[in-house]
Amino acid sequence: MRHVQEAEEDESSISQLLIEAALVGEEATVNDVLGHKLVDVNYRGTVNLRVKYSDTVQQEEAPDQVKIEYEEFKTDITPLFAAAHAGHIDITRRLLVSSWCPKSEIAQFFAGLLLL
């Protein structure tokens, strides 16, 4: 587990640490990083994602076979996407709460709907 103190003191390295912690499910690190003054919860950082593909091979006189393959690729993602992709529900909820900005246009839109 990497700590906030080990990251360089700039927004990109702190925010990249948040993405990496969200991807592997380090909830304590996510909470520490979210408390840092330089963190950007909407930062897009580059990571390696591993995606699973499955294919069914049907054969006439033999049992069907299921082939499972993994593909790894580099992509830019946000901490929220990283947590959701990896299935870390508690971290995903925490990031949703942290990224909620009551002054944003969408928040004002929903607040207006509630008043109707």
**CATH third-level topology:** Serine Threonine Protein Phosphatase 5, Tetratricopeptide repeat
Q: What is the CATH class?
A: Mainly Alpha
Major beta sheet summary: 2 strands, antiparallel
For the CA atoms, what is the radius of gyration?
Answer: 19 Å
Q: Can you tell me the CATH architecture?
A: Alpha Horseshoe
Total individual domains: 1
Mean pLDDT across all amino acids: 82
Report the β-strand fraction as a percent range.
15-25%
The largest beta-sheet arranges its strands as 1-2
DSSP helical segment count:
5
Secondary-structure-derived class: alpha+beta
N-to-C CA distance: 47 Å
Query: Helix-strand pattern, N to C?
Result: HHEEHHH
Shape: elongated
Number of beta-strand segments = 2
Poorly predicted runs: none
> Could you give me the name of the CATH homologous superfamily?
Ankyrin repeat-containing domain
What is the percent of helical residues? Answer: 40-55%
List keywords for this structure.
single chain; about 120 residues; alpha+beta; Serine Threonine Protein Phosphatase 5, Tetratricopeptide repeat; two-stranded antiparallel sheet; 5 helices; about 45% helix; elongated
Task: Provide a quick synopsis of the model.
With 116 residues, the protein is of the alpha+beta class.
What does this molecule look like?
The chain has 116 residues and is of the alpha+beta class. It has one domain: Alpha Horseshoe (Serine Threonine Protein Phosphatase 5, Tetratricopeptide repeat). The chain has 5 helices and 2 strands; from the N terminus they run ααββααα. The mean pLDDT is 82.
